[in-house]
Amino acid sequence: MVKIGNIDLGSFPLLLAPMEDVSDPPFRALCKENGADVVYTEFISSEGLIRNAAKSIQKLDIYEKERPVGIQIFGANVDSMMESVEIVEKTKPDIIDINFGCPVKKVVCKGAGAGILKDIPKMVKLTEYIVKHTKIPVTVKTRLGWDHNSIKIVEVAERLQDVGCAAISIHGRTRAQMYKGDADWSYISQVKNNQRMHIPVFGNGDVNTPERAIEMKDKYGLDGAMIGRASIGNPWFFNQVKHFMKTGTHISLPSLSDRVKTAKRHLEMSIRWKGNVLGVLETRRHYANYFKGYPNFKQYRKQMVTLNCPNEIYGLFDEVLEKYSLEEMV
């Protein structure tokens, strides 16, 4: 049984990765309904929180149906991170996660996210301060290292554990790789196989098929899989993995009717949460995967990502359902 603090997560939990402009409450709800064991918020700037920035504060919205849910924060200033933890605690998340892995330049250049991989002592000390500052379990998401020549993830993970980190999720790439090349899970396996490690070690990066999740479990011996890009426009992925792990067979893919219904719900929830403009904008990235594999779909996808009126998008969903359902009947 895998546990974060006192939270039981089952034998091989599947975690929804924190993704900017993706893992918001509407999408987290869909993933939770479809088998995600733990969901994480988008990463939240500690500086934004302490300055009461509207976008950062809105990201603190969590709901009972999401639990267990983790709120992820990032920053490089110790005082700002401590203050942001106090703000986060008021929303009563199950987990506080520290982002030490974001490779984006505007985050890294401030020494936050993956930028802190250049200063491991500060990374460890910041984690220790946060652990001592809250009773909520603290976890860390990070990368293998800054670049290939500075990979010390086995030592880093052990040091984070020793200062109280309750679990660690590791993306199998360095910051220098960004999202290019293949994720190397062998380093993550070395962390797990370190005899001194006793906290859960989750793998992240390139978990894009049920078979890959099984490989992460059986070949690399990890405690769970954190799933990111494979879930975008595909909240069913978690149940697909679980079905395959249980039966060794692939579950039937969602029908077109299910895809349309879910896309509509996603848009409806997003509009309720963020309003018409942002609600429409932030669901666009999901549509390609919601309707992946349907022939001659380019014209519809182009409209889905350019239309601004919700009613027109709903109408387009209905048109898609009618068109492809008729073709399947022929």
Description of the structure:
- By secondary structure, this protein is of the alpha/beta class.
- It has two domains: 3-247, Aldolase class I (TIM Barrel, Alpha-Beta Barrel); 256-329, Non-ribosomal Peptide Synthetase Peptidyl Carrier Protein, Chain A.
- The protein has 14 helices and eleven strands.
- The model has no long low-confidence stretch (mean pLDDT 93).
Strand arrangement within the widest β-sheet reads: 3-4-6-7-8-9-10-11
| Overall CATH architecture of the largest domain | Alpha-Beta Barrel
CATH topology of the largest domain: TIM Barrel
- Counting copies of identical and different chains, the oligomeric state is single chain
The string of secondary-structure elements, in order, is EEEHEEHHEHEHHEHEHEHEHHHHH
DSSP helix fraction: 40-55%
Number of domains: 2
Q: Give the CATH superfamily of the largest domain.
A: Aldolase class I
> How far is the first residue's CA from the last residue's CA?
50 Å
Mean pLDDT: 93
Main sheet: strands, sense, barrel: 8 strands, parallel, barrel
Pick out the low-confidence regions: none
As a percent range, the share of strand residues is 5-15%
How big is the Rg? 20 Å
